[in-house]
Queue: 2 jobs
Job 1
Amino acid sequence: MYSTLNRFLKYVTYDTQSVDRAEQTPSTPGQLVLAEVLGKELESLGLMDVEVTPHAYVTATCPSNIKDANKKNKVPAIGFVAHIDTATEVTGKDVKPSVVTNYDGGDITLKDGDESERVVLSPKDFPYLLNYRGQDIVVTDGNTLLGADNKAGVAEIIAGTEWLIQHPEIEHGDVKIAFTPDEEVGHLAKLLDIEKWGADFAYTLDGGAVGEICWENFNAASAVIDIKGRAVHPGKSKGLMLNAVTMGQEFNALFPPSETPATTEGYEGYYHCLSFNGSVEGVTLKYIIRDHDTQKFEERKKFMEKAVKWMQDKYGSDRFVIDMRDQYRNMADKVKGHEEIVELALSAMRELGIEPNIVPMRGGTDGAALSWRGLVTPNIFTGGHNYHGKFEFISVQSMDKAVDMMLKILELAVKK
Ligand SMILES: [Zn+2]
């Protein structure tokens, strides 16, 4: 019925992996390539105000078709947002998706070969696969991520808009579309001109399984610690050598092992050492810091600074340099007073018979940043699982549920 699957299969073939701490936006040229493709598609659907910026933002409007001017004025302009880049952890180049039709609940061999090469998507590792028995599942070839995060969102938004255009009998207000670059590297839709775009509020379609909805997310910061050692010939280095590797180990040991992503869930915050690179001469450690609670988040950042200070006092202030930056904030503070926006999505779920799964998101979205800039933007599901890795998958039926969801939100907004 919807064009979701075909669109999705096309979009994932574009390599739009973003890179961290790039000087420019988009961080990688592939994102602009896809942005231009999407812009052309939106134009050919007949949308208005289609714009593709040099920074790989795509915006467009599907104008209200409500004839009664009085009624038209009362219906809000609702935005739908998805990001076009894919995660940094696993390559998004040469994605070769395949569709497992009528999934039987067994193992899916993504990649065959001897034991070291074989990649198998199994319900033993991922029990929720069994929820998709009888459905059609899109999977990877075991070499790359899939890119359902967030190209499923892109495909769903365009498929939903296409449906509206093909069904002019369905009344709707202004539908505002925005596709953004570099979400995975914390760009936070900074260059989206909210005023010009014109949505009264919005939803990101950037969540997980059907029913997921979120209006709470982490407060987030990143920290890079550069450690300068002193290399001396190991045969003559007693009392002289300063090994940056062991200094880095000593630094990392200051953080509680019970407060990492692997040991926390729900509302528990953490410190996460993303990478540890270097040699005797110098080492760079990259961290992220996360907490839902604003006060605890501030305390975590202070602790990071204290840990650096501790090491500086021991080894000299020039040997430890910290670059800590805020990334995004919890949107919950901004949703307060605008609960009707969340309620609209929840009523849409109820009408579609979807059980809402309200999650305090252990991540962030462009929606968090947009909310802080005044455009309340909760996050709703796209249908996928196992993001940022080779085991990523999404069911076709789930993607279509997300389109149903978008259309139902628009329908209820007219009825209200
Ligand atoms: Zn995402």
Note: The CA atoms of residues 102 and 135 lie 5 Å apart.
Job 2
Amino acid sequence: MKKPYVFNIQKYSIHDGPGIRTTFFFKGCPLSCQWCHNPESQRHEVELMYYHERCVDCGACVKACPNGANLLVDGHVSMNRVLCKACGNCVDECTMNARELVGKYYTVDELVKEAEKDQMFYEESGGGITLSGGEVMVQNMDYIEEFCRKLHRKGYSIDIDTCGFAPYENFARILPYVDTFLYDIKLMDPEKHKTYIGVNNRLILDNLIALNQAGAKINIRIPLVRGVNSSEEFIRQTIDFLRENQIRTLGFNLLPYHNTGKSKYENLDRSYADEQLKVPPQEQLEHFKQMFLDNGFQNIKIGG
Ligand code: SF4
Ligand code: SF4
């Protein structure tokens, strides 16, 4: 099983569950959402971010690379990512901080220590720990289960932010330790789901039903992207699904699309499909909120 890598430890987070939380972001995701604003979270392995705008073409990274991944062409550095093994040599040599490795391995006890640092804030605010990604539920589950068990033993609230695309047995393993699942619903139509997200949504919906039947607490998170899913039809389908399957929800977050991740695609030398992706208008978000309220759902929040 692959080593889990953490690409961010977000302190004082107020968007990943109740109260003040520490959120651990794990690298690697089985989905490929076109609007993903954390492209550095998608691949499991450690990667190099190259901040082109800071680079002064000094060439130090060319000399530092044992794999020939950097070349000086006409006085400018260019990079062949296929050759990069994320060794970090160029990061150490770059005085302009134009390079950074994303993803780091921590032992479970090291992560627990990080979590402990802000214990006082969790107690005062009713917060805790959130595990996010990428996707937590496709990581090494021995590791994730041990982390959850140790946090739980300390009395911390644990929320899991998940896309739902993972074997149900992975969820079952950590169920006893988890306070709430922050569960994404992105599209109900299976074909559209495959087009925009790369996989069929059956497993995601089946897991949601199974978690509900197992008594898990569930908060639904719905990213809304104009041109993809911000339609009355999708909200209606979602409401119908939740009602038909008697899913008990603590609340909803309607998350309007934003393109703040665009520069990260440039730093990873990847293309970004932002032409067709748009922010939904506020009045439409308010209308969707009202649709949920009219159908008896509560705690509908626009935003994280
Ligand atoms: S070492 Fe840094 S500043 Fe120099 S060429 Fe490489 S990336 Fe640019
Ligand atoms: S991280 Fe290592 S392999 Fe990748 S470009 Fe830098 S020196 Fe080369």
Note: Residues 48, 64-65, 67, 69-70, 84-90 surround iron/sulfur cluster (ligand 2) (CB under 6 Å).
